[in-house]
Amino acid sequence: MNKRIIIAIDGYSACGKSTLAQQLAKYLHYIYIDSGAIYRAVTLYFLQNAVSYHTIGAVSDALQHISVEFRANENTGNADTWLNGKNVEKRIREIDIAEKVSEIAAIPEVRVFVEKCQRNMSRHKGIVMDGRDIGTVVFPQAELKLFMTADMDTRVQRRYTEMKLKKENVSLEEVRRNIEERDYLDTHRTMSPLRQAADAIVIDNTHLTKEEQLDYALDLAKKVIASPLIRQMPDDTHSKKD
Description:
Strand order of the largest sheet: 2-6-1-7-8-9
Distance between the termini: 34 Å
Radius of gyration: 17 Å
Number of helices: 9
CATH class: Alpha Beta
CATH superfamily: P-loop containing nucleotide triphosphate hydrolases
Order of helices and strands: EHEHHEEEHHEHEHHEHE
Oligomer: single chain
Structural class: alpha/beta
CATH topology: Rossmann fold
Strand content: 15-25%
Largest sheet: 6 strands, parallel
Number of strands: 9
Shape: globular
CATH architecture: 3-Layer(aba) Sandwich
């Protein structure tokens, strides 16, 4: 288990990408990088500073004033997102950010900025990164690529439950609309649209528990790490039905 690799996890909203990525990173003693949080932090900055994000000049200027980093949270054991020296972890998960993040993430200048941040954060291997273009654009050389999916009803209920636990005042219909809109924007943007990498392993977790999902992903990671080959990508799709 001495060999260190890059694990790229892509997929749709509310499919548990971040949960699995954090679990894998913790078990393997890897660094977890939440690429979606970087886009959310940029979105928050744009909204707070009334950035005209339809104007290239305004976007380029704003990006020069943004610094995003992840710092360990001793209470949760996870890493929180910090924007320009301020902890914004809770703020960037709110519905107004979710409603705008896909639109802002589609801006080419923003994507270039975030991709640069992602690569700077992972100069050495031993990382798990989740997002929507990690295995296709950011780290096409990743030794293990996973693509997460689940049926729409399951995704909506998961996100709704998550937001209600955080005391968010949101309806089930609002959550469904937000997820559907994000799916469309993520898969139809011109630059780096969400798509499954040719060598990614699909995990449909509609009927999987978090424990089952983690066990399967860990088994894949261990096989790649133990392999003497540079790449060892199993051709497999994992799905458990009732």
